[in-house]
């Protein structure tokens, strides 16, 4: 190592990605070295990761491939994409409680663009002694609606680069609006019905 180098423990097969000394990955413990010296006692023990697996469908039980699925909680999160048969597998998760959230991977992908981000409705998944937790029922995505339009100036010229905000009836922003792909136009991701 060169002086002032910090490092994370490499993620081996089945283990949790972790930093030395149980530090957060984004705030690793610094081990200071100087040229010509040896720093000993820098040992680490890897923890076995847990897995959440399941299927993604719509309300009509159509299994959905190409859907982003995120397991988020306990200081860690991972995002995977469902494959054939709507099957997803999120791996290398530390012990703890996770929300499983599904939604579009790209708002221009036709097979999943009309769905809103949906949290698995059977509550948080608690990963404990079982190495793999399989959702007992599919993560069912809800259909949303789209809003599209053109932002113009007083001469009806399309304006590029204009931020467009969509809010819920209670005034909360709906995140992840796509940037205008064509001069003056904007297409939103699917939003839940009732939002304006």
The biggest sheet, with number of strands, parallel, antiparallel or mixed sense and barrel status, is: 5 strands, antiparallel
How many β strands by DSSP? 13
Judging from the principal axes of the Cα atoms, what is the shape?
flat
Class per helix and strand makeup = mainly beta
Radius of gyration: 22 Å
> Which parts are unreliable, with pLDDT below 50 for 5 consecutive residues or more?
7-11, 176-196
Q: Strand content of the residues, in percent?
A: 25-35%
Mean of residue pLDDT values: 75
Compute the number of helices.
Answer: 0
Task: Give the SSE order as H and E letters.
Answer: EEEEEEEEEEEEE
The N- and C-terminal alpha carbons lie at a distance of 55 Å
Helix content range: under 10%
For the structure shown, list the relevant keywords.
single chain; 13 strands; 196 residues; 5-stranded antiparallel β-sheet; mainly beta; 30% strand
Task: Write a structural description.
The protein is mostly beta strands. Helices cover 0% and strands 30% of the residues. It has strands at residues 8-9, 18-19, 50-58, 67-73, 76-81, 87-93, 96-104, 118-119, 125-127, 132-134, 139-141, 148-150, 185-187. The strands form 4 sheets. Strands 4, 5, 7, 8 and 9 form a 5-stranded antiparallel sheet that branches. Strands 3, 6, 10 and 11 form a 4-stranded mixed sheet that branches. A hairpin with a 2-residue loop joins strand 4 and strand 5 (76-81). The termini are far apart.
């Amino acid at each position: 190592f060169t002086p002032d180098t910090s490092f994370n423990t490499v993620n081996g097969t089945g283990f949790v990605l972790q930093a030395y000394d149980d530090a957060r990955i984004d705030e690793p413990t610094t081990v200071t070295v100087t040229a010509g010296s040896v720093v000993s006692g820098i040992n680490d023990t890897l923890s076995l990761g847990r897995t959440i697996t399941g299927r993604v469908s719509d309300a009509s039980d159509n299994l959905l491939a190409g859907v982003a699925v995120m397991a988020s909680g306990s200081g860690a999160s991972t995002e995977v994409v469902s494959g054939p048969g709507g099957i997803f597998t999120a791996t290398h998760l530390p012990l703890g409680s996770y929300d499983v959230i599904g939604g579009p991977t790209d708002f221009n992908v036709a097979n999943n663009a009309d769905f809103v981000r949906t949290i698995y409705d059977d509550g948080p998944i608690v990963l404990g002694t079982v190495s793999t937790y399989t959702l007992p029922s599919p993560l069912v995505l809800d259909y949303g609606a789209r809003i599209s339009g053109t932002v113009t100036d007083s001469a009806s010229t399309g304006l590029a680069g204009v931020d467009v905000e969509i809010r819920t009836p209670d005034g909360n922003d709906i995140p992840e609006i796509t940037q205008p792909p064509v001069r003056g136009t904007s297409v939103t991701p699917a939003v839940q019905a009732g939002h304006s």
